TrEMBL record:
The keyword Metal-binding applies. This is CENP-V/GFA domain-containing protein. Belongs to the Gfa family. It comes from Pseudocercospora fijiensis (strain CIRAD86) (Black leaf streak disease fungus). Residues 2-137 form the CENP-V/GFA domain. Signal peptide: none annotated. The lineage of its organism: Eukaryota, Fungi, Dikarya, Ascomycota, Pezizomycotina. GO terms for molecular function: carbon-sulfur lyase activity; metal ion binding.
Amino acid sequence: ILRGSCACNATSWTSTAAPSHLDFCYCSQCQRVSGAPFVSWMGVNRSSIVWSGNLQTFRLQISNGMNSIATRSCCSTCGGTMSMQYDCYPEKTHLSAGSVVEDVEGVMKILKAGDHIFVADKPAWYTIPEDGVERYDGFDQSFSDRQRRYE
């Protein structure tokens, strides 16, 4: 259904399942790893993804001093942001929507935006478009509840 790649094409993924949601994250970590004001993440069933190439994985300390809650991955050659795996959602992988290079069935055209998260960390110079999508200063309540149960 979908295929994605980093900028240098050394690392790629294929998904046989459509994404369940699309979120826009403005947290400081997403800004720093991407060099952009936010990263667009799409949730995909982990079992539907096949990786090719060499991923580098890493964990970042959360800015409020909490332990890391996710493993991020990037291309080990060019450093392109590829995915995030939340500890409390082992069945889902969040793929960088910007890495999509082939959309065989047009699923990205019908995928609806989910949430803008961590808008409190948004750079002052960036204005989020008025798109009618929910906005949260951190995670939405359902994610926060799931994270608390996981801990």
